């Protein structure tokens, strides 16, 4: 079997337990060298967005959001947005390599379960992305977790272009989402976790959170793969 990122052959070394159990051999999607390129976030982290830093104080982005909004979104992320993450996102999201969806499923699912949500709402992709990519890269990574698509996109061209925008332009984007039918009833008094792939400025998640908060959730947090 080949590594999905560098294409090198991964040799499967069976342990004695695996041989004796005759159990299924779980194949790794990427090799150990590629896996070692990802930086798992370590404490201390920003108590707001989960970015790794030198203290638990709010980072500059979170301070800005706190002034702009009357609340702070509690976000936790798994890995740093480094070169390996960029390459991974390029191959998974923009080249649409669906096989990569399994690489972070297990730790992401663990992170979500720790938050004990009633509903998991993925950040939606617009119709254009559906047509070209054919899948939602966020839901794709979540394995057996049941997702509730209670947010939908409104503007066809805005969200896809978000990744090509400069920081200032991103912060100014208008609300790209709307609530799905019955979202208000479903979200009311529930523990909600929003999931996205990358937390960059926080703009996308705060747009989503603003809508969810209109539905009176009991709790609202978010999780992203990268920060
Ligand atoms: Zn590799
Ligand atoms: Zn922060």
UniProtKB/TrEMBL annotation:
- The answer, when asked if Transferase is one of the entry's keywords, is yes
At the top level of its lineage, which domain of life is listed? Answer: Bacteria
Q: Which UniProt keywords apply?
A: Glycosyltransferase, Transferase
List residues of the Phosphoribosyltransferase domain.
151-226
Q: Which InterPro entries match?
A: ComF/GntX_DNA_util-trans, PRTase-like, PRTase_dom
The entry assigns this protein to a family as follows: Belongs to the ComF/GntX family.
Protein name (record): Competence protein ComF / amidophosphoribosyltransferase
UniProt organism field = Paucilactobacillus hokkaidonensis JCM 18461
